[in-house]
Amino acid sequence: VGTATEIYDFLRLVFSRIGRTYSPVSGGEVRADSVQDVLSYMKGSGATIIYILSDIRWDWRDDKVELMLSLKEQGYSRFFAEGKVQTIDEILQKGNYPKGAMLLIDRLRLDKPEDISEDSDLRTRLLQSVGDAFDKGNGDMSVVCNGEQKAFCRRFELDGMTFRKPDEYLLSFNSPLGACQICGGLGKIIGISEDLVVPDKSKSIYDGAIACWRGDKMGWFKDHLVRVSERYGIRPFEPYCNLSEKEKDIIWNGRRVEGDDDSIIGINEFFEWVHTQRYKIQFKFMESRFSGRTVCTACHGSRLRPEALYVKVGGKNIHEWMSMTTDELLSFINALVLEPNEQKIASEPLREIKNRLEYIRDVGLGYLTMNRAFNTLSGGESQRINLVTALGSSLVGSMYILDEPSIGLHPKDTERLIKVLRKLRDLGNTVVVVEHDENIIRSADLLIDMGPLAGVNGGEIVSKNSLTLQYLSGEKKRFLREKRNWNYFISVEGARQNNLKDIDVKFPLRVLTVVTGVSGSGKSSLVGDILFPALSRRLKESGDIPGTHKRLGGNLDRISRVEYVDQNPIGKSTRSNAVTYLKVYDEIRKLFSDQQYAKINGYGPSYFSFNQDGGRCSECQGEGVVTIEMQFMADVTMVCEECGGKRFKPDILEVRYRGKNIDDILNMSVEEAIEFFSAGKEDAAKSIAAKLQPLMDVGLNYIKLGQSSSTLSGGESQRIKLAYFLSLNRDGGKRSGERILFLFDEPTTGLHFYDVEKLLKSFDALLDAGHSIVVVEHNLDVIRNADWIIDLGPDAGEKGGELVFEGTPEDMALKGKTFTAEYLRKID
Question: pTM score, two decimals?
Fold first, then answer.
């Protein structure tokens, strides 16, 4: 986030200009004295007699006579030693070389210290003399003012260590001068992973939290740790997640005392021993099993070499600045106290940083830390970060086209986004937004409404018959479903993943539960990181490691499966499409293979598959397009010349059903295909139409049957998955006895008011079949149609993670004191 918004670039500038370097040994500030520092000391001392001395280091190997004669030839004639001045001739004559003697560069008598002014000849003489003293002493010199000696050093060192002066390269993990030498600036290495060694952090050491110390043979290490734990202040019966950093450090790094049988063997030392035994297959397997991408042991995730972290501004290094959330960093900068000179130097880059932080906060991302990896952001978050970058650049006369920037935003955050969009407009830019959010639509200066419906029934600019206008004006009433009551539930107790504050939550079964809260309040942590993986492991004895929580409870016997319906693509291949995902294409291929021409030529169902050789085009392998790799440029995709984009060989395209070949069918929209197959006389045709109906029900009547999965949006992919489960229900899912808990993450993404109504009806179809639904959602139409609301907050990041309300929408509107309740009341 920091690099994408250019905040990190400005931070490096601030740290390189006003950063102070501190020694890791004593904690003292490392300073390199300048000529100006020496002159300021002289002026401030009030001295009238000043000696300027150079620290000539005596070495026992040096020929001191030769050195003295050499200095005399250079024009120097005196030394300062033991509080008095001695000439070189006197020292040579006595043959006594006084210890700590320093070369006298210059001696001055001042009438008054104020004589050291900006433009005086005396000042010029002093600048020259001090510079010579530094040069002769290899960076070390002293001044004696009224008998008091003060040492100065031009080298950047302290406590016997030489430091590098901060610059922008030292503070960059993208530069070899600043990047950690172990991980190369990535912050991660392949090593022993804590998440693999301690997969369930809700367990205690006694209960087997440390996975590598389980079993008969390795269990000795766990038993030994439990036995000596009290001596080292470790709580073996406490959940691992509750242990202090000091306790974890002892567990991982051990505490070994020579000859003491009660020494603790740390996990790291244990794996060092395992590594020495790798010639045995079981130890090789063990090391591999617990290895993964883990935080770099050298930089601890900062991605920088130690020298960069010695530099601090406001008492914090650049990694600590980057580890703060947007809101925390903004507060920190506003409270930052700098010296007048530092303020003058850093004011401009700090202003740029504050502007960008305020933009990030205004688009509802105040919970993001600056060191958050960009590839871990959701689509909506990354789009808003790009918007911040554009605002920070202060471009004018540009056109910005935004595709649903409100994705993932609570209505409270949407209001902030609207202000940012207006600010972008006021700078002299044109802002075009593709959006379904009511608040953004009402805030527009101009509306262009496409319709009147979707697919072949759309594509026009409408006004009179606009569905959007009907909903906005209140002419068309919002859909309200019939509410359901619940008796059974699944509970998550002690949820502490990310920012969750040890909360206990009940998820009702056989009803529509909506999890709400401002962006960053902990919704995805609760549902995606804890509920789904914990249920998967409980029901299937497999799955990802769940987030930190105490236990899963409730009526677990009332569900047989859990499905997380996300927005990932529906297939691994670009040949995947909606009808292959719903298994409808198998019936379409069978129908075509039953046609007379196909039977005569022996074309079975496999000949109509673009995933198998036989009937598909041999040039494009059933893709319809060929991709030309351009090496250093983006690949070029072209329509296949062999089949003309039809995917199949000419002979296969000769097979027709009611005048349509397989390519014609794949180019039909869902709505057209349902109408076409419904008119067929065969049972197979009517079965195909029935299986396509769920796509119509979820509002995907406009997509083509053969449309590649790679061209579908995340919301479309999610609704195709929903249609698949609806089709299973129609095929007897209700009779199968399965009771599935469906988890949806913002299913209204990309949906118009009209389509939201279809989605809610689809949810009811699943509930009628005895299933349960939990939805993470910001759409107020879905929230008010919920049977039960779980509201997290009160705000984002560290200010969130609490259960601020649970109950019905009616209770929330009546008694709720949360942001969600506030906006829910506005639409009722």
Answer: 0.77
